[in-house]
Amino acid sequence: MAILLKNGSIAAENGVREADLLLQDEKIVQIGAGLKPGLDTEVIDCAGKYILPGIIDAHVHFHMPCGPSERTIDDFYSGSVAAACGGVTTVIDYVEPENDQGPLEAVAARKKEADGAICIDYGLHYVVNRWEEKLFESWEQVIDSGLASFKVFTTYDSSRLPYEDVAKLLAWSKKRGVLVTVHAEEDDIIQAAKKELTREGHLQPAYHGKSRPVESEAAAVKKIIALAGETGSRVYFVHISTCEAAQLIGQAQKEGKQILGETCPHYLVLGDEVYAGADPQWYIMCPPLREKEKQPFLWSALKEGVFSVVASDHCAFSKEQKGRSRTFFETLSGIPGVETLLPVMYAYGVAPGQITMTRLVELLSTNPARLFGLYPQKGVIRTGSDGDIVVFDPQKEVELSYHRLHSKAGYSPFKDMHVKGCPEITVLRGKVIYRGEQFCGAKGYGKFVPGRI
Length: 453
Ligand code: URP
Ligand code: ZN
Ligand code: ZN
Ligand code: ZN
Prior knowledge:
The chain is 30% helix and 24% strand. The protein is of the alpha/beta class and 453 residues long. Residues 59, 61, 313, 315 line the site of one zinc ion. Keywords: Hydrolase, Metal-binding.
């Protein structure tokens, strides 16, 4: 069975053009004007619609362990159903080895959780959460097994890597060509803020934002850029929330350093006033939401190319999980977002003219594919690439309330938004997996896609 997409506007990294697109045997096989269907071809009329390469959400946490007894609420099945309904055809999740696990064992265990459950394609980043010289050799094997990027945290008791170890990893990554991604928040500043809030008796979820001040992100970004500069290594900062950090990243780029940045829709459209609202715990994520007044600077950084990727950091917990703790530091941290990534970025980015459609495709598909070693199999509309496609209706209005969404979180941080523009059809490797507001993919159809350096 082949699929012929007729009369659509193909939005690719290099511009928008009218053309037909033929998908067959999991691949894009032909692009051009006036293509005719063969036998056993489904023709889909895409007049008035955009055709985008499948979205690649480079930052998600499905079925992520949090302490001994908790996991994020979306497993590889429910998370990937939500993704498919939002036009996402590939996610990149994480391998976080436990103390007694060797690196390859941890990779295998994570793949076992995903395979058979996930209904879209996926890649993995490898988290370095402890340091031993002897791990170098297994990391080589981790790379060979298809993980092209590593991740470190400068905060969180469970996974923080001291700066001197980050420096060693950066030096090694330079030799190996692997991309190191960094969660940058300065732990000392966070601990000092927490101490002060404890003294004042301000430990409720409403104080979450105050516990992780702007300076904590900027300070960690500054230190990591300095370390990367010493070795000439490439670094990718995940979920940048502040213009101060964006400025440091932009400055480093001007100096010729290989520093990359990712931000998330919530930092671009939600503000910290929600912490004074009725359900502050729903908006607890790290780093926290910032002042709304500063958002234009983040959008400028996005336009100017300081950020290469926008990803969701989908890390969903149910309302019940979120509501269990009385303090900000015990409340499970993270929000759902994989399904709203594309519609939010279209409605707040493309529709008001903040970014072009071409830039949207770059940020949500082509750049993550390139940076994480999936290009040109993914991230581009080109003959020979995977038949991963979103048919996007720029006119259709939807409400981003949880009733319409598929995460098991049971709430949506974007609940008050009515947006114009949403995915109509999602195709993964030539198979329709979402259409007519219905998920129609199959459990286990998703495959691991090795990232290649
Ligand atoms: O609060 C968040 N973002 N939780 C997910 C883990 C992380 O730091 O990305
Ligand atoms: Zn993080
Ligand atoms: Zn008070
Ligand atoms: Zn994350």
